[in-house]
User: Fold this.
Amino acid sequence: MDWNHYRFVSVWDVSAPPGAVYEVLEAAEEYPRWWPQVREVARADGASGTMRIRSVLPYDLVVTVRERRRDPAAGILEVDIGGDLDGWARWTVTAHGSGSRATYEQEVGVRRRSMRLLAVPGRPVFRANHALMMRAGHRGLVARLEGV
Assistant:
């Protein structure tokens, strides 16, 4: 097992229609307004940029993201990730009941040296940190969509 490899899947059900959810999720530069752990987003150009993320643990992760797929008809947003993490992430937004389901998938390897050194003892803590971040993101998205 590669202790520095992670695969995450989070499912967020929201009452808003898929188009509205997709619109909010594709505007990554607005994430700091509604997702507390996404501290900063800077676009480099129309298809790439950097994000600074910090959850409960006392460190920032800085990642570069490059658009890999943007398909509003299919509800898919997908990026390649570099920097402190290396891999990819994907949002898939679909109709669900009277609202939407936003599924977030991420597969990454850790490149940050301090996290790699703590790979075995830190793994459950890193996973819990990610789960807390995703719960806060879900709450923030719901609040953002209620304000739209």
